[in-house]
Every structure is written in structure tokens, then in C-alpha cells.
């Protein structure tokens, strides 16, 4: 058949109820769609079978990770065009079910089934998580963290650059004049200033990653730091960095669950890009544990990605692609829900700063790093894993830019019974 692209284009447009803004180039050499638009390259019939067996985001993700689909042209432009159809048209599952009632669409699907090849579902790519057991137990959290962070320290060095900070940087204006490393240093310093760290204090860094926050706080502010992570690879890397900096007397890196920390109280706690892993059912427990570990008057800086709230929160479901390939068991909550849980745990929330645009800029730099080191990244992991990260980070950059998701720094205090918070009357002295 020499018209696969045209038939695919017609079917997609019937399902969407709108013109397809991308070109399609199919395995038989045929092309259809706007001639100057980025192309969705469908390499084989297996891509179609993946979509037939799992319509929607997960089927597309499996085809992308397996290399059955790719984008020819600018990735951001292609994703932005698709986002305009999906994100702004509401829940695509409802649209799909409605389209399937159309006799013409059902006829087109029958034709698609006939030329898609053997009627067996292709096996998911090996990079996909296999679910086992209950969510957010100590064991399942450790397994989820290992899937995401134990990809290899060398791989993360390619993506993150020398700073090895895996969270939103803090960019000056104008942004093009700053390096990623400078912006990440500025973010770490911003956290330290919000926590009002002073020489001799104890800091707990929850989800310490590769040790960047712990090292910065100890070196620049003279505090003693305990950094905890569930990733053995991260811990080994962080310990070496601490030793190389000559800070082993002030920084301890542990492989430990936050629920098992028992050596409080601490003067301050930083949690940067970790709380997304906690889960809504465990979030109050997380907040209560951090409250317990702080001394009266101590400060918590909770840096966390949040999603936009929905009118019907009961209808919220996690992103299938991210859950299966990127952050297993991760959940995003609206910032209002996060603040409410912190307050329920006993914290007084004193400041909230949204730095959404900063994360979009950071992700675009990470994508550029990955693309520049693509061949090595593939050798260190797998072609599928590298494709997961490229798609995930590029799509996330657009989600931040379009205000689909945000990132917030919440400063909270374990206010003493006297009510003396220790906060200055003009709080934002860190700006």
C-alpha cells in the first residue's frame, strides 16, 4: 500500500475533529499533511498496532520509546502543535470515545486494523516500569527512586552539567547572559537565604541528590548538613564530591528514607524537588515528619512542582507517560493543597514564590545538553532511555511555559508557642 500516510492522517483528523498540523511520513514512503510542518515519522506498522492496543498517550509513548515513531524537524514546534490540539481541547479520552461512535471513524479503524499487521499487541519497551505491590511503601518508593535516579551518574552529568542540580535553576534577567551553572548556584543560594542559615546550624537536606545543596550550604554558610537519598548511586557520587571539597567533617550523606530520620531536631530543612515523589495519601505524614524534625523556630523550604487545580479533583489521573517511564508513582498537587497539608501538620507558611518560567528555561538547557551529548548518552543507557528523557524534558518545558504546571518555593516555620516567628517585618530580605 502506498497511501499509508494519507489514511493515517484522515483517521487522526476524524478522531480529533480538527486538521492535523503535522506532516505524516509513513513506512511506505508516502507523505501527507502541511508540507512545511514538522513531520511525524511512522517507521513501521508496529507503531499503529501500539496505538490500536493502547489508544492515547501511553500507546504514543511506547511507540516513541521503541523508536517506531520520531519527529523530523524542530521537536518543540511539533510538541507545541500537538499540545494545541490536546491540552486546549480538554480530556482527549472523552473526545476519543465520542469519535468512536461515528460510523465513518469506525470504518476507518477497521481499515487501519487490516493493514496494521499481526493482531498481537507488541511488547512494551524494556524501559517501561513493571508495577509490583502497593504505592508509597518504603520498598516501592525505593524501587521508584532507583528507576529514575539510578540511570547512571555519567548520564546525569551530560544532562545537568557540572552543577549536578536536578531541579529548577534561578535565572537573572536577561537570561541569555547567564550559564546554567551560575543559575543553579543562585538557586542554591536563594534557598540558603530563605532558610537564614548561619554558621554552626544543622541542616537536613531531604532528597539530597548528588550533594549540591549540602555542599553549597556547608561551604558558603558554615552549617553541618545531613543529606538523605534513596539512591545508592547518588549517595556514592555525593560522598565523593563532599570528600573532594574537604567537607567530610560537616556533611554526611545517607541512604535513608525521610520517615526513618530520628536524630532531630534540626535548625532548618530543605526539600528541593523531592516532595513530588511522596504521593497525596502520604503527604500529611511527610509534612508531619518534617515538622517533628525541626526545632521550634526552625524553617522548612519546600521546593515542589505543582499542577493547576481542576474543578473535579476526583477526575484527576497521573500522566501515563511520566508514570510508566519517568517518575513511577509520582503525583503533582495544586500548590493550595500543598500549603494546606503543611499547615495541617503544624507549620506556619510565611512565604510562597512561584518560579514557573525559571523551570522552562532550565529544561530547555537540559534538552540542549542531552542533544549535544546524544551519542554518549545512548551508549551509557539505551536508545529508548535517551528518547524518554528528550521527550519528557521538552514536553515539560512547554507545560511550564503554557502554565499547565508550575513550581513553587514554600517557606514554612515551626513557630514556637510564644508566637515569635523570627521572621523580619519585611520578609523578602533574600531578594
From TrEMBL:
<protein>
    <submittedName>
        <fullName>Class I SAM-dependent methyltransferase</fullName>
    </submittedName>
</protein>
<dbReference type="InterPro" id="IPR003333">
    <property type="entry name" value="CMAS"/>
</dbReference>
<keyword id="KW-0443">Lipid metabolism</keyword>
<feature type="domain" description="Polyketide synthase-like methyltransferase">
    <location>
        <begin position="155"/>
        <end position="412"/>
    </location>
</feature>
<keyword id="KW-0949">S-adenosyl-L-methionine</keyword>
<dbReference type="InterPro" id="IPR029063">
    <property type="entry name" value="SAM-dependent_MTases_sf"/>
</dbReference>
<keyword id="KW-0808">Transferase</keyword>
<dbReference type="GO" id="GO:0032259">
    <property type="term" value="P:methylation"/>
</dbReference>
<dbReference type="InterPro" id="IPR050723">
    <property type="entry name" value="CFA/CMAS"/>
</dbReference>
<dbReference type="InterPro" id="IPR020803">
    <property type="entry name" value="MeTfrase_dom"/>
</dbReference>
<keyword id="KW-0489">Methyltransferase</keyword>
<comment type="similarity">
    <text>Belongs to the CFA/CMAS family.</text>
</comment>
<dbReference type="GO" id="GO:0008610">
    <property type="term" value="P:lipid biosynthetic process"/>
</dbReference>
<dbReference type="GO" id="GO:0008168">
    <property type="term" value="F:methyltransferase activity"/>
</dbReference>
<dbReference type="Pfam" id="PF02353">
    <property type="entry name" value="CMAS"/>
</dbReference>
Amino acid at each position: 500500500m502506498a497511501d499509508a500516510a494519507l489514511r493515517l492522517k484522515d483517521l487522526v483528523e476524524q478522531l480529533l475533529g480538527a486538521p492535523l498540523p503535522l506532516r505524516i511520513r509513513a513506512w511506505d514512503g508516502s507523505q501527507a499533511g502541511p508540507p512545511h510542518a514538522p513531520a511525524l515519522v511512522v517507521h513501521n506498522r508496529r507503531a499503529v498496532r501500539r496505538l490500536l492496543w493502547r489508544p492515547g498517550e501511553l500507546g504514543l509513548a511506547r511507540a516513541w520509546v521503541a523508536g517506531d515513531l520520531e519527529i523530523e524537524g524542530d521537536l518543540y514546534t511539533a510538541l507545541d502543535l500537538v499540545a494545541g490540539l490536546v491540552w486546549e481541547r480538554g480530556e482527549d479520552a472523552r473526545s476519543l470515545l465520542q469519535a468512536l461512535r461515528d460510523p465513518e471513524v469506525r470504518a476507518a479503524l477497521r481499515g487501519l486494523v487490516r493493514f496494521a499487521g499481526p493482531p498481537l499487541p507488541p511488547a512494551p519497551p524494556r524501559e517501561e516500569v513493571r508495577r509490583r505491590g502497593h504505592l508509597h511503601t518504603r520498598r516501592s518508593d525505593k524501587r521508584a527512586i532507583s528507576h529514575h535516579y539510578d540511570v547512571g551518574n555519567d548520564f546525569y552529568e551530560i544532562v545537568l552539567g557540572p552543577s549536578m542540580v536536578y531541579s529548577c535553576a534561578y535565572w537573572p534577567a536577561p537570561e541569555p547572559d547567564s550559564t546554567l551553572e551560575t543559575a543553579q548556584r543562585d538557586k542554591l543560594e536563594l534557598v540558603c537565604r530563605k532558610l537564614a542559615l548561619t554558621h554552626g546550624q544543622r541542616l537536613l537536606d531531604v532528597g539530597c541528590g548528588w550533594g549540591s545543596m549540602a555542599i553549597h550550604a556547608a561551604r558558603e554558610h558554615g552549617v553541618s548538613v545531613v543529606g538523605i537519598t534513596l539512591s545508592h548511586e547518588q549517595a556514592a557520587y555525593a560522598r565523593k564530591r563532599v570528600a573532594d571539597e574537604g567537607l567530610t567533617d560537616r556533611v554526611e550523606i545517607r541512604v535513608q528514607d525521610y520517615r526513618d530520620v530520628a536524630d532531630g531536631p534540626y535548625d532548618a530543612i530543605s526539600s528541593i524537588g523531592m516532595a513530588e515523589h511522596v504521593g497525596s495519601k502520604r503527604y500529611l505524614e511527610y509534612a508531619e515528619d518534617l515538622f517533628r524534625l525541626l526545632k521550634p523556630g526552625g524553617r522548612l523550604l519546600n521546593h515542589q512542582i505543582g499542577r493547576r487545580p481542576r474543578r473535579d479533583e476526583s477526575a484527576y489521573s497521573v500522566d501515563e507517560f511520566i508514570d510508566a517511564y519517568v517518575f513511577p508513582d509520582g503525583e503533582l498537587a495544586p500548590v493550595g493543597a500543598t500549603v494546606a497539608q503543611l499547615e495541617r501538620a503544624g507549620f506556619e507558611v510565611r512565604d510562597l514564590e512561584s518560579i514557573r518560567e525559571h523551570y522552562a528555561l532550565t529544561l530547555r538547557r537540559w534538552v540542549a545538553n542531552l542533544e549535544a551529548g546524544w551519542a554518549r548518552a545512548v551508549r551509557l543507557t539505551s536508545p529508548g532511555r535517551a528518547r524518554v528523557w528528550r521527550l519528557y524534558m521538552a514536553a515539560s518545558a512547554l507545560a511550564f511555559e503554557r502554565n499547565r504546571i508550575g513550581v513553587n518555593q514554600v517557606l514554612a516555620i515551626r513557630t514556637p508557642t510564644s508566637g515569635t516567628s523570627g521572621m523580619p517585618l519585611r520578609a523578602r530580605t533574600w531578594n
